[in-house]
Amino acid sequence: MTTLRNAALEAWMKEHGYSSNSLAEAVNSAVGDLTGRVGGLDGSSVRDWKAGRVRWPKSATRLALENVTGLTATALGFVPRGRAPSSTPAASQEDPVKRRSFITAGTAVTAVAAAPALAAPRRIGTSDIERLQRRFTEIIVSDHRHGGQLGIEQEAAALADEALALQNSGSASQRVRAYVYGCAAAFRSSAMWAAIDGRRYKDAMVHMREAQALAELAADLAIKFRIWSHAGTLYRHMGHPAEAIAANDVARNLAITRRDPMFACLGHARQAACHGLTGDPTAVQRALGFAQDALERADQQLPRPAWMTAVRNGAELETLALAAYLSLGKFEQAESHAHRSLALLHPQMQRDRALNTARLAHAQLGQEDIEPAVTTAMSIPPGVVARHPRVTRTIGEFGTRLQAAAPSSSLTCAWNEYARTSLQNAA
């Protein structure tokens, strides 16, 4: 029997600069993040995938690969067991989000039409909630590793639609229905964040409005805080500090910030970053002081959503302080916070690590420490720069500032050559 090569996987690897060995290493690391034990793949395993000899990897490997790439296994050209591989290229390249939306919609219509004749509606229960919550955790893991990829945004939006379709699939208690709406709001908030991170601001606004409406149906204060806090970040990245502060005020005034100081810490820290845009150092220092105080008062043992991971150990506070002081042009303080953030960030948070390393280079350049600034900027893997729009922009701005600060320096020439070869090839 002739096997069909996995052209979709090969194309993705070529586009993103992965060899068989490097993809195996990335998937092994992602398996470790998910299971606590690093995977055992090697380059030959990936070559088997590309050659079509392995058409459907094991579940943990498959999920890890989806986290690494930001795409579903079927979008990467894999074929579920029992399904014949398609020999038509167009079929294998069909948009997985559109396909799933079509299937979900079709299934829902069929179920509604058939239910009166066949059986009573199913009962929506805690197992459905647990399944949706697991998928939300997977989205968070993908975001930490890959940032604002369009595939993550689409996947999160599709899962929000899936949660809403579940509401119509059977009966449920009011409590369960509220949880389902909460899951839908959580997925929409992740789609919103992926769009913000990818600098797709118009799409982020659409996701924000839908997420806000769903959060009201859910009466979930944690997810409502996340949505309004992200709204503040969206306006901040769009250069609208007044709207950013107003949106963040909504988040900071929610009752959850009084019940759990960890949420108050995040609210104050994000407010500091907003004040940085207004050029108000006193407001920045005051907000950061409130954030630090709240972090010290917070009970570290309380269960919290997966998206609060970097807040718990102070990494997010340091990251936002770094952003605030960079906006103020206080480069020495920014560098200090950059080093602390990089020491606290978990290894799997590749996007945040790359972004803060790029910000560190800016802080060093702002102090006219050109050699360490160039060394810092060059330490970010070119493939990571190319994959994350905010990192790409920050590194591009670094090159522009370096050229203006030291146009004739040999270090500037070295950077220009590095950017021309390594970064352009990675892109």
Characterization of the model:
This protein has 427 residues and is an all-alpha fold. Helices cover 75% and strands 1% of the residues. It is built from 23 helices and two strands. Helix 2 packs across helix 3. Mean pLDDT is 84; it is low at 87-119.
Low-confidence segments, given as residue ranges, are 87-119
Order of helices and strands: HHHHHHEHHEHHHHHHHHHHHHHHH
Please identify the oligomeric state.
single chain
Strand content: under 5%
| Separation, N- and C-terminal Cα atoms | 38 Å
Quick structural summary:
The chain has 427 residues and is mainly α.
Compile the SSE list and pairings.
Elements: H1 7-16, H2 20-35, H3 43-51, H4 59-69, H5 89-92, H6 96-118, E1 122-123, H7 126-146, H8 150-167, E2 170-171, H9 174-197, H10 201-218, H11 221-237, H12 241-252, H13 256-259, H14 261-278, H15 281-297, H16 309-312, H17 315-328, H18 331-344, H19 350-366, H20 370-378, H21 382-387, H22 389-405, H23 410-426
Parallel strand pairs: 1-2
